[in-house]
Design a protein that fits this description.
heterodimer; A: 600 residues; alpha/beta; five-stranded mixed sheet; four-stranded mixed sheet; 23 helices; 17 strands; globular; B: alpha+beta
């Protein structure tokens, strides 16, 4: 506990999520501290590190309080000027402000930036406000109050009832009602039970769980304490992938601090309840995010799914009743207990309550981590939070939701509300929350191929439909992108998809065909163009590219001629350029430089 | 570290309240010291330090301190603006340690503006 109070007039909160750390935020922090010391301000200004702020594309980030000014792209060499201007002279440093893309207006206040003001933070409520490595910061924001309430004032049944009433559903992808899962486990016979946290986040481009662990590790621990009391478990494991070193470091710190305070271990807060939580490092197999595979992996065996039932609530880790929830689910639990299920239910939609964290990436202006209430439209996420599509000539084509288990939602369905049911209706799934925005330069066959390559690689090989079926689908997609597609290929893909989905053992295989199915459903004409016309409309599949100049559109400027590295373009002044298809290497240079879209 | 009891959780929360209020925007009064070059030359740093000490000694946790640039009245520095909730902001001029202490005690804590040191009630309208 801090003995002496300390008053500062300014708190500089440096983002220390993995994104900002990799672009140098620790260096900036050290430089700031040194410079502040040099200017004799160290008793007036506090420099604190926080977890991921969310606006990862603009890092390293700094938010200053109480002014709430948001600074981006701060480098070590900017520090002396920054300290002089902002801290000594009290002037906002324009150079590092966020610039609104629409009107090039610099926006100082974080709450005026659309990316932030259109979000609703529940799971990420502490991001940017506390130092994840200081437990007192977490406690100051009502931390461990919910655990205290659950341990001392509530019975196991009351906790389960509260969680069930809140309507929260698993945030890891399945969307199974959390309260129900707990009830099954609480009702299961046996004295020894386990509580697990799934932090084996494997979807390409998804980093929700990592950011929560890095920004607010105590929220996850507190959620697990409450869950443990509800089902009667005294041993917990957090299965976190070894590729998340910073998350592991902060979790270890958090567990040590909580043990030190007696918030983990024996007789927590004098309630007589014991819980021990240990970390287990996963080696990075995608399939280990599947619950039964994850449990085998903790037992020291090869991580492979097994048929269910029996469900883990009855026979889980070491064949004992076990509850496994995802990081984001756990981080929501303290809020539900502390603020009540009715408050939680008031957020989101009737069947999908609460908020959801998404990793927004791809062709949007604001890339990063966002949290929005369930039920907002995809349009709002892409345009209000994401800031729209960069590039004047580009337009939105599709949004890929749910990673390799999800699907592509086309522009025509952009007003779909983002909740479990509505997204499933489109053929995609909410999944763990990856969201890739694609513009018209993305080839949908190529996108399907990318995700299928991932699942083929990550399939554990135990069941035939997944191991062989996805492989066959990939062969067909390969063939299509190489211009060797056959007329029956689309139908074969659809048949294979249905078989793999119905016959696979676990969620990996059951969802693997989703990217292919949805792209066929919404972009069938693109597949047909590849197969029948040997043409890639988005100009991505190199083997199918044959460039030519449209004489009517050509302005005879010669830019393409100058850009061509392989002398495939003939051009003389005041004449239309001509492309020699045999010499062309499909490098796309001419296509990119032509200002008049005359190369097709 | 001894094991925490329930009361300890609340104590930790209390001890951190000042810092967190600053980040949250949940405060009763805000004191802005004008720290442009002119202000600093005239002694704004002494005013700031006096305020920091006063806040710490009083265990005040609902008042935040902030600095800003030159207020445009360089001849009357050091200056500060005190904004207590529900009261109109007051600008004080020609400050020193004693005046600052008195303003802190009477205006910031008790909510009674110190008319003798005040330049004006209210702030200029900004566009």
């Amino acid at each position: 506990m801090e003995k002496t109070r300390k008053t500062y007039h300014t708190n500089l909160m440096i983002c220390a999520g993995t994104g900002c750390v990799s672009c140098g935020s620790f260096g900036v922090r050290d430089a700031l501290i040194a410079e502040i010391e040099k200017q004799d301000l160290s008793h007036e200004v506090l420099v604190a590190t926080t977890g991921c702020n969310g606006f990862c594309a603009a890092g390293p980030l700094l938010v200053s309080y109480p002014d709430g000014v948001f600074y981006q792209k701060l480098q070590v060499e900017d520090v002396p000027f920054f300290v002089e201007e902002y801290l000594l002279k009290g002037r906002v440093v324009k150079k590092h402000l966020f610039v609104r893309p629409e009107d090039k207006e610099a926006i100082p206040a974080i709450n005026d930036i659309g990316f932030f003001s259109n979000q609703l933070l529940v799971t990420l409520r502490n991001r940017g406000l506390i130092d994840p490595e200081i437990i007192d910061d977490y406690i100051a924001r009502d931390g461990y109050m919910a655990a205290e309430k659950a341990l001392n004032e509530m019975t196991s049944e009351e906790i389960i009832r509260e969680v069930t009433t809140s309507g929260i559903r698993g945030r890891g992808g399945g969307g199974f009602p959390t309260g129900l899962k707990w009830k099954f486990c609480a009702d299961a016979s046996g004295d020894q039970k386990y509580i697990l946290c799934n932090a084996d986040e494997g979807d390409p481009g998804a980093f929700m769980d990592r950011s929560i662990l890095e920004a607010d590790p105590h929220a996850v621990l507190e959620g697990m304490i409450i869950g443990a009391k509800a089902i009667g478990a005294h041993q917990g494991y957090i299965y976190v992938r070894a590729e998340y070193p910073l998350a592991i470091e902060r979790l270890e710190t958090a567990i040590a601090q909580a043990e030190d305070y007696g918030l983990l271990g024996d007789d927590i807060l004098g309630s007589g309840f014991d819980l021990k939580i240990e970390l287990y490092h996963g080696a990075g197999a995608f399939v280990c995010g599947e619950e039964t595979a994850l449990m085998l992996s903790i037992q020291g065996q090869r991580g492979m799914p097994r048929p269910r039932p029996p469900f883990p609530a009855h026979k889980g880790l070491w064949n004992l009743p076990t509850v496994l929830n995802n990081v984001e689910t756990w981080a929501n639990i303290p809020q539900i207990i502390f603020r009540g299920s009715n408050w939680f239910k008031s957020l989101g939609t009737e069947k999908s309550t609460g908020t959801k964290v998404f990793a927004l990436t791809g062709c949007v202006k604001n890339i990063g981590l966002i949290e929005v209430p369930m039920g907002v439209s995809l349009r709002s996420i892409v345009y209000d939070v994401g800031g729209g599509i960069p590039g004047k000539r580009r337009k939105l084509k599709a949004v890929q939701v749910g990673g390799p288990s999800g699907g592509c939602i086309p522009e025509s369905l952009i007003d779909t509300p983002v909740d479990f049911e509505s997204i499933v209706k489109t053929g995609a799934i909410v999944g763990s929350g990856g969201m890739v925005v694609m513009d018209d330069t993305s080839c949908m066959v190529d996108v399907a191929k990318f995700f299928l390559e991932f699942t083929v690689e990550e399939s554990c090989g135990k069941c035939t439909p997944c191991r062989e079926g996805t492989q066959q689908m990939l062969h067909i997609l390969d063939r299509i992108t190489l211009g060797k597609g056959r007329p029956e290929d689309i139908d074969t893909l659809i048949t294979l998809s249905a078989m793999i989905k119905s016959a696979s053992l676990c969620g990996l295989g059951q969802t693997a065909p989703n990217p292919v199915e949805t792209t066929i459903k919404y972009f069938r004409e693109e597949y047909e163009a590849h197969i029948f016309e040997k043409r890639c409309p988005a100009k991505k599949c190199k083997a199918l590219l044959k460039f030519e100049v449209v004489p009517e559109l050509c302005k005879k400027c010669g830019l393409c001629f100058k850009a061509c590295p392989s002398n495939a373009i003939t051009w003389v002044k005041k004449s239309v350029a001509v492309i020699d298809v045999d010499k062309c290497t499909q490098c796309m240079n001419c296509y990119a430089v032509c200002k008049f879209d005359s190369i097709i | 570290m001894a094991k925490l009891k329930i009361e300890d959780l609340r104590k930790i929360k209390e001890s951190k309240k000042g810092t967190l209020n600053l980040r949250d925007g949940a405060y009763r009064a805000k004191v802005t010291v004008h720290m442009g070059t002119c202000g600093i030359a005239a002694g704004a740093r002494i005013v700031m330090n006096t305020l920091i000490t006063a806040i710490e000694q009083n265990n005040t946790d609902d008042v935040i301190l902030t600095s800003s640039g030159c207020a445009g009245l360089c001849s009357q520095e050091p200056m500060m603006t005190v904004e207590v909730n529900d009261l109109s902001p007051v600008k004080y001029v020609y400050l020193d340690e004693e005046k600052t202490k008195k303003i802190f005690r009477e205006h910031v804590i008790d909510g009674k503006p110190v008319a003798e040191y005040a330049l004006s009630m209210g702030s200029e309208t900004t566009y």
